[in-house]
Amino acid sequence: MTRTRAFSGAMTGAALLTLPLALTACGSSKDYVQEKTVERIATEQLTNAIGVTPEDLDCPGDLAGKVGTEMTCVLTSDGEKYDAILTVDHVDGGRVHFEIDVPPNATE
Asked: Would you say the pTM of this structure is higher than 0.85?
């Protein structure tokens, strides 16, 4: 099931989908994806989904390649900040698959 979310600012009226993403894990034991890789790929996928590039997507660190891992990044659009919640839904060999969900309200 795909859930849609909308947020205001530069993306007013745009629906943001919960996106399944697949990234190749990096690291000596192939059990995480580097922070900058997560940010880059997630930004590209968000841009492709809604047609607007977020000003910034800042994640707090590397994404562990373990099912159920959740990380909250901060998405900035038109000066407003939003939580972008990444959840690992499965790991296939060296590929980490996750979804990204942006709730509709700006964070404080």
From this structure: no
